[in-house]
Amino acid sequence: MTKVLITGVTGNVGMEVIKSLNKLSHQLDLYAGVSDLLKDQQLTGNKIKLIQFDFANTESYYSALNNIDILFLLRPPRIAEVKKYFKPLIEIAKQNHVKHIVFLSVQGVENSKIIPHHKIEKLIVESKIPYTFLRPAYFMQNFTTILRNDLVVKQKIFLPAGNAKFTLIDVRDIGAVTACILTNTSQHINNSYELTSKDKLTFKEMANKLSSGLGKNIHFESPNLIDFYLTKRKEKIPLMFILVMIMLHYFPRFQKEPKITQWTEEILGRPSISFDQFIIDNKNLLG
After folding, report:
1. What's the CATH superfamily of 3-137+170-196+259-270?
2. Which residues share a beta bridge with 70?
3. Per DSSP, which regions of the chain are E strands?
4. Distance CA 84, CA 62 (A)
5. What region, left, alpha or beta, does residue 9 occupy, with left being phi > 0 and alpha being psi -120 to 50 degrees?
6. Given this model, what pLDDT does residue 41 score?
7. Considering only CA atoms, which of 211, 197, 204 is closest in space to residue 163?
8. pTM value?
9. Which band of pLDDT confidence, cut at 50, 70 and 90, is reported for residue 138?
10. What is the pLDDT of residues 65-97, one digit of tens each?
11. Predicted confidence (pLDDT) per residue in 175-223, tens digit
């Protein structure tokens, strides 16, 4: 039986991967890599076993990757040192004869050499381990997580994004695509897929859709970098997270507009989830 290790299961994407796998009929032997076996024992349901794995503890890589055939690799936001953590992980995966790595990257990674995902992709390619790179667009679920406080408490989106357009993807679709690929890796060897919905919007347009869907006025404000930094520091947001927010929202203003792709719908065999549908489905969280 093919043994699969899924990392990042405590986050939005990891949980959606597990939910999607639980809906499919397959012959995979599934393991969820978690740092705290006791704390996370109820996390994944009966179909998926837990195994000790901690990105911050490279010693845990050896036992976790033992006899693993397929690795679903997701970079936790707090882990950015590629050479320290991901280089040994890929090396140990190769030593343990991992047959395929499915890596959650980002759209446009090939043009963004400064982000960790670019370096991780390069390590995987150089390892000669067969791979599939998933490159999703901007997560719709950012509105129910990192942007939720401003949205709910202040009824505004406060980001230095200007008039840049962003392609969007619902994390549920990422989970579903990942599950499809994990259950049929032979059809996706050494392929890269940019995953988007059919939505490409500025944050002002997103604010308008949120206003309409939630029945209240959501205002978009695009501050300069100094104002954004000072505001977020007053909110006691960690410095590294502020820098990530700037990289995610400010830099696209000076980059080529991202493309809408068909990969999500082609792989799933159904329409992708729209931003309007996301708002309807998450009204309680967004309200």
Report:
1. NAD(P)-binding Rossmann-like Domain (3.40.50.720)
2. 4, 100
3. 3-6, 29-34, 49-52, 70-74, 100-104, 131-136, 138-139, 156-158, 166-169, 191-195, 200-201, 219-221
4. 15
5. alpha
6. 62
7. 204
8. 0.94
9. very high
10. 999 999 999 998 777 789 998 999 999 999 999
11. 999 999 999 999 999 999 999 999 999 999 999 999 999 999 999 999 9
The mean-pLDDT minimum among 6-10, 55-59, 74-78 falls in 74-78
Strand, coil or helix: 283: helix
Of 208, 203, 222, 204, which Cα lies nearest the Cα of 159? 222
Domain residues of the chain, as ranges? 3-137+170-196+259-270
User: Checking DSSP bridges between strand 200-201 and strand 166-169, what pairing results, if any?
Assistant: antiparallel
DSSP β-ladder status, 219-221 and 156-158: parallel
Q: What's the token pair of residue 242?
A: 């502020």
Q: How far apart are CA 20 and CA 170, in angstroms?
A: 13
Instruction: Using DSSP bridges, classify how beta strands 131-136 and 100-104 pair: parallel, antiparallel or unpaired.
Output: parallel
